[in-house]
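Re: [help] complex structure
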Amino acid sequence: MSTSRLRPRCLSVLLAALLLWGGLPTASAQPQRAVRADTLYTMTGDPIENGVVLIENETIAAVGPASEVDVPASAEVHKASVVTPGLIDPRGTVGLSGIYNVPADQDQLDTSEPMQPALRALDAYNPREQLVSFVQQLGFTTVHTGHAPGALISGQTATFSTAGTTVEASLRDSITTVAFTLGPDAQARFESPGTRAKGVAMLRQALHDAQAAMDGGEPEGGDLGQDVLQDVLRGEVPALITAHRAHDIQTALRLQEEFGFDLILDGAAEAYLMTEEIAEADVPVILHPTMARPSGTTQNAAFTTAGVLHDAGVPVAIQTGWEPYVPKTRIALYEAAIAMAHGLPREAALASITREAAEILGLESVGTVAPGQRADLALFDGDPFEYTTHVCTVLSGGEVVSDECK
Amino acid sequence: MRTALLLLSLAGLCLCAPAQAQDRPHVFRNATLYPISEEPIEQGVLVVEGGTIQAVGPAGSVDVPAGAVEHDVAGKEIMPGLVDTHSHIGEVGGGDGSAAMHPDARTIDAINVRHPSLNRARAGGITTVQLISGSGHLMSGQTTYLKLREGGTVSELSACEEKPVEDCGGMKMANGTNPQRASGAFPGTRARAAAMAREQFVAAQEYRRKKEQADDPSEAPDRNLRMEGLIDVLEGRRTVHFHTHRHDDILTAIRLSEEFGFDLVLHHVSEGWKVADEIAEADVPASIIVLDSPGGKHEADELVYRTGRVLEEAGVDVAYHTDDPITDSRLFLRSPAFGVRAGMSRAAALESVTLAGARMLGLEDEVGSLEEGKDADFIVLSGDPLSVYTKIEQTWVEGTPVFDRSDPDDREFATGGYRVYDGAAQHVHE
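Output below.
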């Protein structure tokens, strides 16, 4: 969402241009790869039966029914029962919270202060983390990850491709959101705030201070955290506010109204009690994992919430969230499957981890299968939501990154 | 559910005076039946009466008693009630932090059978369950086998007819990193953990010897509940249910069982795929767990979907368990489905959540399959048990429905919602 700081997309364009100029014979305007699908979910319209995707370098060159798209003889062809856009994990901590769950690999939450907007996800993301490869093999080509719920402002989130072995090579968006938490989950690790009211007072003061500095013309760079909050106040970076209980959701909406920032509701276990207000405020929801355990602030979570929100016209993505124990990362595809089985229409369930997730997060080049989009694709041997279906091939930026049925 | 039960009992009163509703025979027709003990039956007929299964078979081959309550379940599938060999529902707990081994601590003294988590399990089709204390001890206590029939006391839910509920269970043990703590009462290493367990069993053998050799009661050792609990294990009255993840820890558990001659069921068995032949050779069953991703601790970093398949191929008796709340009782059937995804046979997968679990609890003569004379514990499914699209529509225990998805109060336990899992009082079916 933010392009004001690091500019990874520009870097990769430059890199591609350099390769072209390098005169590599294969880098001509000729699709090097084609994918044939019995059913192709483009997420831009109805699924295409017997569909074809042509891939040229990193991007999708053509999409359509086999009768309308010619596959060059030189192209490597992949076939699958079902093809979807590369999947997007709309909100997790993979890459920051590692597989071993020991202090050395848990970087999703610093508890030295309750408000730390300056913390960048890209400084903590480990692109070689095993769990990143694990989710990639299951079809995930993009992860929105970063600081976890658990502090009033836990830090920033960022978006990465699951391909690439350096942060620079993986980075898709350096500051996707700033992560806030309301309610008891923001209190457990700190002496203060100790109550909801105190936590919100602290947040409001911080936002007022950032606003005052901005209004007073103070130059950026003096206070890293305040700079980021000003990005939020200017609407350049959305506030991702974790709020599960209905009254915490109300507080999030109240803060949004007071400060006018772009709000994404995160978690939102009791959103079904607040459907009208959320729809009225035109706020999207990145919903808790459908299988979140019904305890603590998610005690009243329901399998049916995604469907209820969708029916009310609220944009819904389904997240993996953060787990203190196991499963160390959830799989958003599985979470969407359970939501689908409990009332979220099939296309909406797929959108919740592809197109809708990309739209909510402001990611323009992923989430759909269309010409010009990044060539991220997941190839399945059956219904993507069925327990027994395998993800057999994963393409990321036009390259095969996994080719074994998982 | 309350309404349904009330209607049923009213019907019973009206139609057949003193007889209870569940005493009338019920016949279920036209469903696909999974007896587990034999091949699936298309268009099957299931007859239950007096809490037990009277007949199972294809249409036309089964005698249906007169006056049976008819259930046309065309398009549905019926399988035995699920057996969960490892669950923490009911606020179950065992020993405390004062010691690493608590052979005297009984889960029956902790279980809250009115807790709404039991209704979550009923919504998930679970009819038999082992309630087990945690893995933070080498031996956290005596486990309890329950049937999820309706009832307000732990005795009413006992899975054992022949013995009191306090004897209806096994013993929980654990190795690996969970029971290791920075405290003098607990082991700090694997070798220390094994030594501590062995010392206790040796002490129990000595206690038993003194008891047996005493010519009169005055010479016998003072009654020691810890030793008595261990003797139950040594003499085969309690199976050891052993939490273990890493390949070498699995073999340590087997080594202990062979040294002291106790009955063993391996639990979790995350790296069982590395030592499948050794497990098969020892003829020890494995109750396994599948998680959506590996990790959470070092010893589970190689937990894989294919463990069920590898153990099946090696000839090991395999069950899945929920470890609720680690995996959710409502979604227990995801586990065998993931087994099939990774190559397990469909037959072994369905057996893994029914008859295999029953064998591991020593309850295979009562539950786990649809066979004449067994408990009438079964679930009615809207479709293929291993499909994400399928819903558990009804759960029956001993011929009585304990979950009915068509009842909104019951359905809430399957889906969750506002205050559904708050205090149990308002949800007790009595």
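The two ends of chain A are 32 Å apart (CA to CA).
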